[in-house]
Design goal:
The chain is of the alpha+beta class. It has helices at 35-38, 95-101, 146-152, 159-175, 226-229, 241-258, and strands at residues 5-10, 13-25, 55-65, 70-73, 111-113, 126-129, 132-135, 141-145, 178-181, 191-195, 204-210, 213-217, 261-263, 272-278, 281-286, 291-292.
Amino acid sequence: MTEKISSWNIGKVKITRIVEVERTGPMFVVPDAIPENIIKMPWLQPYFADEKGNTIVSVHALVIETLEKCIIVDTCLGNDKERHIPAWNKLQTKFLEDLEKAGYKTTDIDTVLCTHLHTDHVGWNTVLINDKWEPTFKNADYLFGKEEWNYTEKQIEIPAYAEFINDSIIPIIESGLVKFVEVDEKICNEITLEPTIGHTPGHVSIKIESEGKKASITGDFLHHPCQMEKLDWISSADWNPELAKETRKNKLLEYADEEILVFGTHFATPSAGFVRKKDDHFIFEVQHPLEKR
């Protein structure tokens, strides 16, 4: 059974993962990740693939709690939202209840941070109240990348983009809660954005440093640990696949060299671990959480 809530400490920073959905089955976003290919990577079992070669993926948010800030990173899919992907359409999950079980009311969150503006990273930005989309985190600054929004707003004529732009992004902009930030923005003493361009033009990852310890939240420059072994496996959702490949290779080398605890934004439970170099590629060594609920 999936652990819905789990936590790690990075120095004085606490990182808590809240799962919205976790599923085993085809991973449409990485076309090469089919069972006959995945089964050849036994190191992915049991956390990221089953014994038949089916991938396991997660949609979750991460709450970063520092002495100054309470930040939620990537707000998943959301409830009540009409989506063209059947498995994501009109969801009814207990995400906000689980967030509160983890110790965070929506009013406790002072910063919402989106690594990029795709449907599965902005969903809980809003909730449906009296047939109107309202900000979920009314006390928070919503941080959207300037470059990311400049690109995303031009996609509104595409139905697959329009559905989440209209219900999860524009209501936040109209509420006045948005702050547009740079790809290398410093959020607070321990948290800095870093550009990881390729999946989208303004994609960022989150760099966390405290008391000599380092961690990173990937966003979608990496969708599944299988892309550590198969560095050239692209994501069908990448804006620039070649640039995304280069970003993956460079970041994985950095992660392996600097002993950085990596939180994969779509990595299944336990989601966190260390990147290890092996021959001409990399593998992932999981790091189990300190707290489980």
